[in-house]
Write a structure and sequence with these properties.
The protein is built from two helices and no strands. The protein has about 50 residues and is mostly helical. The relative contact order is 0.08. The chain has helices at about 1-10, 10-50. The protein has one domain. Helix content is about 90%, strand content about 0%. Helix 1 packs antiparallel against helix 2 (about 10-50).
């Protein structure tokens, strides 16, 4: 889907498109990492509760 969008861009817009794509990807990865860290925290808390 994203690749098709890039193909339709003119050469001038292409680098901007790649930058925008990189920003979106970075944002997605950041959100995913936060979510993943939250899961790990919850899992650790659950393990600690079981030990008590």
């Amino acid at each position: 889907m994203v690749c098709k969008q890039l193909i339709h861009l003119s050469p001038q817009n292409w680098s901007f498109g790649v930058m925008e794509l990189t920003n979106q990807t970075h944002r997605y990865i950041t959100q995913f990492n936060k979510y993943h860290l939250k899961l790990i925290q919850i899992r650790m808390q659950n393990k600690c509760l079981k030990l008590i």
